[in-house]
Here is the input.
Amino acid sequence: MNAIYSLVFVFALVLIPLFGVGAAQQTYFFGVCVPWTAFLIFLVFFTAKIIKWASRPVPFSIPTTAGQQWSNLDFIVHDKYDNPATTGQTWIRMILEVFAFRSLFRNTSMRVAMKDGKPIVGYFSAKWLWLFALMFHYAFFTIAVRHLRLFLNPVPKVFEILETLDGLLQIGIPRLYLTDMVIVAAVMFLLLRRVAVPTVRYISQVADYFPLLLILAIAASGIYMRYYAKVDVVAIKQLILGMVTLHPVKPIPATIDISFFIHLFLVSTLIFYFPFSKLMHLGGVFLSPTRNMPNDSRFVRHVNPWNDPNIKPHSYAAYEDDFRTPMIAAGLPVDKEA
Amino acid sequence: MAKVPNQADLLQSMNYTPPAKGWMDVPPNLAPGNWAYPAKAEKVEYLGFPNPRQWSPADEDWKLPPDWWQRIHEGFKERLGKYRSLQVFMDICVRCGACADKCHFFIGSGDPKNMPVLRAELLRSIYRNDFTMAGKILGRLAGARPLTLDVIKEWFIYFYQCTECRRCSLFCPYGIDTAEVTMMARELLHLVGVGINWILEPASNCNRTGNHLGIQPHAFKDIVDFMVDDIEEITGVRVNAPLNEKGHEVLFITPSGDAFADPGIYTFMGYLLLFHHIGLDYTLSTYASEGGNFGLFTSADLMKKINGKMYHEAKRLGSKWILGGECGHMWRVINQYMDTMNGPADFLSVPTSPITGTVFKNAAQTKMLHICEFTADLMKHGKLNIDKSRNAGKVVTFHDSCNPARAMGLLDEPRYVIKNVVDTYVDMPAQTIREQTFCCAGGSGLNTDEIMEIRLRGGLPRGNALKYVQDRYGVDTLACICAIDRATLPPLADYWAPGVSVTGVHEMVGNALIMEGEGERTMNLRQEPLPGMEEEEV
Here is the structure.
């Protein structure tokens, strides 16, 4: 049901620019006002959320240790990057987490089988989620970077190289981008997994299907623009450069195909939606205390800003007052004779 | 103890297919057996917690204070401001489901609310409703739901069906830690007087008598004397076990479970033998006679209060540093909370082995050393006189306790110690040990018998891994470094891998030590005949 709702939402989002541009001819509204607003909201609320998180104290040092601790015993081998003891080692742990999805790489799937009436709980390597998640994120990232050529004039050499690499297969004109195929395949995998695995379907919300379907729609509209509609890229770049330099072109070139406005509207929706959604894991992963702290609280002091010095233990004096007579009778030393 | 289904029935009842109804529409099962007994009014009152009363989770009316909603809402808001962990974990979960089948309670039950992601959603749904714009506007469509009395009941069931073992947090791509979520939820429940007796009674005992079991000082001395007598009977050597004495170099603190119950007492005897063997200048304390800290399972404030005794006593006795015994959650508190809460303990010095001279810089701030680190160092330097043959015939495996594994990383030290005192050691499968270790299903204060079925279900992954090495390698001994394990693993082993006995690591050390001036050793610390001495039993 949540998947259906999300699908309906995305359809509605396609229809808005379809009629807004197609029928009402509101090209300026859809081509300039909407993306500007969405970007502004993204900037403000993304920053606000990061500031909100960062301003929260980290009262205790709570890394999840995923390997052998560091100690003085030189015959015990320290697992530096899964149980970091220093800031440098923690950086490497974080780099592995952010760029290689280290934790997800550990993923296993569990199955209980019966053999001769006895249970066997088995654990199997399950790297599919890791693989497709990694493919998805890298494809998304590359595509985002590729789009920067529309924002820069002249286009730096590095973007040309990136595009050459992405189009390495040299299929078709315009040349087919690898990332276009990868992102569609990966999103499809993540979607199908959500629908097909009963436990994952059970936990999935509109907030889980919607961004996937939205990104799929963005990819589809982008692919349509490039390979089928073969939109007027020069005019589009003119429009975008106008936006980034705060001197929007007017009127909007009439040669721009409606598919561009749909694409742009969906992208605007995504960046507008971003700061309020689970997509904020982009920022949150850097701030997760179980990952970004070294396991050093036994040898480096960690301070809790709201530590309450008035919380004191039940004192020894009070304890002895409570038990002095039996303590003396038992021959235990006491601080104060009865 | 509640009636427990047999293995076949229990396995039959496991069902990993989620119900047709959405989880928000599935009420929790409040029948007896699904919850631990609520805290007694006098314990709640003693600790100064709100709303002490007699009540039962089976009743319709839980007798919450009239302003319960306000208290939870305000408490939630306060904690979102005090803990970055909570705020971030509420915001960033993508529900990828990688954690789902990592929880021992899910594996043993199939109940979807035991998937860590859904356990956190029980809280997160209220967070969205009360504290986010989307939740306020879109409600259920945004995964939000209002805080009702039924939600409180659901929290009570499922946040006391989480052992804060952190296994899920290992697999989470953002490190979302359900232990953190559970700790917050339990704190919130205490604000309206909802807690369990198995946690609050030990916590209040610990405050007054110095240990969870409520053993008073003179009784504690009797227990230690009794163990000294037993050791003399077994070895012919009378060990010295000082109590509350000032001016010794080391203060030794271990969980009180080891002073009380079988098989923990044998581990305790192992410590006493070791200290005598090396001539350690140490004392025990009756005031700080508890390594464990059930405050960790209650609230940050109570944890701090209970933990404060360790430094308080070390200072009073004039000790130089503190040695800590085999305990699981105790070491999470010491590694991750102690210095922050009650330090810096500038009056102590960096733990230094008086025997080998090793300076333990990894404990430079807390000044507290783990006995396995201490013993491993002694062994490495050849300072112990060991006769492995006393443990001959044992095939030993090791259960990594959750907290030393995932909140510290003490993995190889205990293995090193074990391998020095036994001939045959094998590990359980890789997915069930070290950082991936499975809980005994009785951690975080859930080691109470009225929820035995839940514990045995949660014990399936550990029990099955144990059964695997029992069948394959003939493992007959399960070693552990946790007093709760020593209480919870025997019933777990009896149920899932009958024939395996549970032991502390230092029990095996104690058996293997050749004491100066000892008589012929014919019995182990359990007073069972040693290998080759069986005929003398008659």
Summary: Chain A has two domains: 2-307, 312-338. The longest strand of chain A covers residues 108-115. The beta strands of chain A are 108-115, 118-125.
